[in-house]
Amino acid sequence: MSSNVEVRHPLPPFTRETAILKVRLAEDGWNSRDAEKVSLAYSLDTKWRNRAEFANNREEAMRFLMRKWDKELDYRLIKELWAFSETRIAVRYAYEWHDDSGNWFRSYGNENWEFNEHGLMFNRYACINDMPIKESERKFHWPLGRRPDDHPGLSELGL
User: Fold this and answer.
1) Which whole-number Å values give the CA distances from 31 to 12, 24, 85, in the listed order?
2) Per the CB 3.0–4.6 Å rule, which of 51, 53, 114, 153 could disulfide with 123?
3) How does pLDDT run along the chain (159 residues), one tens digit per residue?
4) Does the residue 28 lie in any domain?
5) How far, in Å, CA of 129 to CA of 148, rounded?
6) CA separation, residue 82 to residues 72, 139, 155 (Å)
7) Considering the domain boundaries, does residue 30 fall inside one?
């Protein structure tokens, strides 16, 4: 493999263990809210559908993430593996955030991911619903950043 080829482990074909690791690494990246760093997990020609918005390359995906985290404040995300094949992973997830007026939301979604041989995601299809919640109904209370290993996942939280 040429030294100038971007590689993002774990690589396909996925096993249950490597698919779970790929999901956790994606969760950790998104919880960093570092759009430039997160965008490196996607191929240069990545194609996204996120709600009604489309991204057609890594640069557009990065700009999308920047807008997202400017709007969705105190963002905390949990992802869970739903299914996988050799090059594809399906996840379900929930995240909590508030807007600049202090209104809290829990957003629920499903994503379908497809990876190239270098472990970069080149297709991402996301469907998401936002549910207004009271601040007292929040379930994701860890400090901003990576979810602690001992924090319950979606299934344990009944979500």
Assistant:
1) 23, 10, 25
2) 114
3) 445 789 999 999 999 999 999 999 999 999 999 999 999 999 999 999 999 899 999 999 999 999 999 999 999 999 999 999 999 999 999 999 999 999 999 999 999 999 999 999 999 999 999 999 999 999 999 999 999 999 999 999 999
4) yes
5) 25
6) 25, 21, 11
7) yes
Q: Show the tokens assigned to 81.
A: 């593996």
Assigned token pair, 2: 């040429």
What is the distance between the alpha carbons of residues 113 and 88, in angstroms, rounded to a whole number?
6
Phi/psi for 116 (5° steps) reads -85, 180
Domain membership flag for residue 149 = no
Which helix or strand (DSSP H or E) is residue 110 part of?
Answer: strand 104-115
Instruction: Check: pTM over 0.70? Answer yes or no.
Output: yes
If one counts the domains in the chain, the total is 1
